[in-house]
From TrEMBL:
It comes from the Bacteria. It comes from Haloactinospora alba. Gene3D superfamilies: Tetracycline Repressor, domain 2 (1.10.357.10). One of its GO terms (biological process) is response to antibiotic. One of its GO terms (molecular function) is transcription cis-regulatory region binding. It holds the Pfam family TetR_C_1. PANTHER family: HTH-TYPE TRANSCRIPTIONAL REGULATOR RUTR, TRANSCRIPTIONAL REGULATORY PROTEIN. InterPro entries: Homeodomain-like_sf, HTH-type_TetR-like_transc_reg, HTH_TetR, Repressor_TetR_C, Tet_transcr_reg_TetR, Tet_transcr_reg_TetR-rel_C_sf. The keyword tRNA-binding does not apply. Keywords: DNA-binding, Repressor, Transcription, Transcription regulation. This is TetR family transcriptional regulator. Residues 8-68 form the HTH tetR-type domain. Coiled coil: none annotated.
Length: 223
């Protein structure tokens, strides 16, 4: 029996090809018609696996969110849990920045996103945070992570020294930022995260009698 000329179309192959296409052309440039062309099939073939483009993107978003780690809350240390969650969340989003607007719009009914939101909220509540503050902490962490994953501060500057040399003396070294962008963006995120957690630690102590950021024997945050 002759082997098929093209790989068999299945949901996993559709998702992988769609994600690669979004990574390349962005959400605005993505369509089921273009995806069908990439897969060398008729667009109608895709709809037997996914009813709409949004359903497909939701499944892709779930796959990306499955790599976000919320296990840090299992220790009972809310600060460690937030640290692990925020770092892995940023890494997952930064790997596919073109999909961030879709993911950041909200969990909706996406299973993986809701599971992680439930774990984060539950971990904060279990640590003694009032429900209202737990909600705001989850939202604030998301704002921090999404901003860090979407934009690069360092890459936003031109690498031509002449742009800054005479008119902007305080930015005389700005042309060098792009060559150190990865380190600057990483360290800037860590600085913002640390300052955010320090502020929450003070708030926690004022809200929760005997509240501590790290229970005895809990793991250090580390790098």
């Amino acid at each position: 029996m002759a082997r098929p000329k093209a790989p068999i179309l299945n949901a996993q192959r559709i998702r992988a090809t769609a994600l690669a296409l979004v990574d390349r052309v962005g959400l605005e440039g993505f369509s089921m018609r273009k995806l069908a062309h990439e897969l060398d099939v008729q667009a109608a073939s895709l709809y037997s696996h996914y009813r709409t483009k949004e359903d497909l993107l939701a499944d892709i978003a779930d796959e990306i969110m499955s790599g976000v780690d919320v296990s840090g809350f299992d220790t009972g240390d809310w600060r460690h849990g937030l640290t692990v969650w925020a770092r892995s969340y940023r890494s997952a989003l930064a790997a596919h920045p073109n999909l961030v607007p879709f993911i950041a719009a909200g969990p909706g009914r996406r299973t993986e996103a809701l599971r992680r939101a439930d774990a984060v909220h539950g971990g904060l509540i279990a640590a003694g945070w009032p429900a209202r503050h737990a909600t705001m902490i989850g939202a604030s962490t998301k704002y921090l992570v999404v901003g860090a994953a979407t934009n690069s501060f360092a890459r936003g500057f031109d690498d031509d020294v002449r742009v800054y040399r005479d008119r902007y003396p305080n930015l005389s070294q700005a042309h060098r930022l792009s060559e150190h962008a990865a380190a600057i963006d990483h360290e800037s995120f860590e600085l913002a995260l640390s300052a955010f957690l320090d502020g929450l630690t003070q708030l926690y102590a004022s809200l929760v009698p005997g509240g501590h950021a790290q229970p005895p024997g809990s793991p250090e945050e580390g790098e």
